[in-house]
Design brief:
alpha+beta; two-stranded antiparallel ribbon; 2 helices
Length: 92
């Protein structure tokens, strides 16, 4: 994940131990919250808005619920955006 803070930017990678389903995404985001807290970039205190871009892999009710929980528990605005798949076909 890419972050811009105070004129500097950095990447943070998280690895989840669960299978690649909504549990994978949920555990990765829980780990990310811990990393941000340790860096002093606590969502809701230092970070007021989270914008997530995905290729559609996060588009499940469980993942959207995870983002809802993050938004409500941290009192921040969360925007989840999806890029349409291309797969070499017409964009239409």
């Amino acid at each position: 994940m890419y972050f811009l803070h105070g004129g500097s930017h950095f990447f943070v990678d998280c690895v989840a131990n669960h299978a690649h389903d909504h549990h994978f995404t949920s555990s990765a985001w829980k780990e990310m919250l811990l990393v941000l807290d340790r860096l002093g970039l606590t969502l809701g205190e230092n970070i007021k808005k989270l914008v997530v871009w995905s290729d559609g892999g996060l588009k499940t009710k469980e993942n959207l619920y995870t983002f809802l929980l993050i938004a409500t528990s941290r009192k921040i605005s969360v925007s989840v955006n999806y890029l349409g798949p291309y797969h070499g076909h017409s964009e239409v």
